[in-house]
């Protein structure tokens, strides 16, 4: 029997990717996954805040009307029920929806960014500090909330200003047909009033009037609201008083709503007065504060507080309940 020559077996060369390449691929996937999560958190923040704003809009417009009134402190005519009843009687129930479209636009820009990017900045600052900042500490949370709020407040100022103008009281009827007309009217108002030769500069100055007060308010509100919610929730879970769920979200958001109402109301009064100052009565934030103290006293800074608390408390509870729920539906871990 003839020997059959066996051909050597041909095997494909085995190649292995360098360890550095595998690590780079894993890091790339991890970053892509994180970026997707951050985008989804922004979407969840927009949905939750728009819903909360829609629910609390009647309270918001009453609060604005109270803050624009200049009666002596303690005047019963400025009580929230008096303002609400007067609005319903003289302007109709639909007046409670004043500035609704501008409010929705504001929430997409302002609240979407301040709440939606909060955890992005927390992660970024933690990585930048190389662990020096405690992930559970207040310093990291305050820093993240302040930066997120600064960006959101500054970008959303035009929508915020239009909302305030559309919610103010006008004896002869509102001069604004809709949000688009309000934007155009305020732009033209600024173009006419500017000392510059550029109408664009004047228009932008008009839309960004009160941006310093808006930004300060945004920082104060966001730090007290988001950080207190985060901290209270974390503490209750750590001490095993409550577990993750609707009960915990409701409790933490209820306290957060009270804290941010107390801290933000004085700044909110100044912001609303500046934004509605068509006659340029105030030269800036300091002048506005001085004028309020001189004419109305320190108590004026808490005008509209009951409505502010009712509105912000409601807004905060609805926001975080829906925010956490939408995160769950999108497959993102709880805040």
TrEMBL record:
Organism (species): Ceriporiopsis subvermispora (strain B) (White-rot fungus)
Major subcellular location class: membrane
Official protein name in the record: Mitochondrial carrier
SUPFAM superfamilies assigned: Mitochondrial carrier
Recorded GO CC terms: membrane
Keyword field contains RNA-binding: no
Taxonomic lineage of the native organism: Eukaryota, Fungi, Dikarya, Basidiomycota, Agaricomycotina
PROSITE patterns recorded: SOLCAR
InterPro entries xref list: MCP_dom_sf (IPR023395), MCP_transmembrane (IPR018108), Mito_Metabolite_Transporter (IPR050391)
Residue stretches of each Solcar repeat: 36-124, 136-235, 244-329
Keywords: Membrane, Repeat, Transmembrane, Transmembrane helix, Transport
């Amino acid at each position: 029997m003839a020997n059959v020559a066996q051909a050597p077996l041909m095997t494909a060369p085995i190649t292995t990717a360098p360890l550095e390449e595998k690590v780079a691929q894993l890091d790339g996937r991890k970053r892509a996954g994180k970026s997707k999560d951050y985008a989804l958190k922004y979407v969840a923040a927009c949905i939750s805040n728009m819903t909360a704003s829609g629910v609390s809009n009647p309270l918001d417009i009453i609060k604005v009307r109270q803050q624009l009134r200049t009666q002596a402190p303690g005047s019963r005519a400025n009580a929230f029920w008096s303002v609400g009843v007067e609005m319903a009687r003289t302007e109709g129930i639909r007046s409670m929806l004043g500035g609704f479209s501008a409010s929705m636009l504001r929430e997409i820009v302002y609240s979407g960014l301040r709440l939606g990017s909060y955890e992005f900045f927390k992660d970024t600052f933690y990585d930048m500090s190389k662990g020096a900042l405690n992930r559970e500490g207040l310093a990291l949370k305050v820093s993240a909330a302040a930066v997120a709020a600064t960006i959101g407040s500054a970008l959303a100022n035009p929508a915020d200003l239009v909302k305030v103008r559309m919610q103010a009281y006008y004896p002869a009827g509102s001069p604004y047909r809709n949000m688009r007309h309000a934007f155009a009217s305020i732009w033209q108002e600024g173009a006419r009033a500017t000392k510059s030769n550029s109408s664009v500069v004047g228009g932008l100055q008009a839309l960004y009037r009160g941006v310093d007060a808006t930004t300060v308010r945004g920082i104060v509100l966001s730090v007290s609201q988001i950080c207190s919610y985060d901290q209270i929730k974390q503490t209750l879970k750590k001490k095993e008083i409550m577990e993750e769920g609707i009960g915990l979200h409701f409790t933490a958001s209820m306290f957060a709503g009270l804290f941010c109402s107390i801290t933000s109301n004085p700044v909110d009064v100044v912001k609303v007065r500046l934004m509605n100052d068509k006659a340029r009565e105030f030269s800036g934030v300091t002048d506005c504060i001085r004028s309020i103290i001189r004419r109305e006293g320190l108590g004026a800074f808490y005008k509209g507080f009951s409505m502010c608390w009712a509105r912000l408390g409601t807004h905060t509870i609805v926001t975080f309940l829906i925010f956490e729920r939408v995160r769950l539906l999108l497959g993102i871990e709880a805040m």
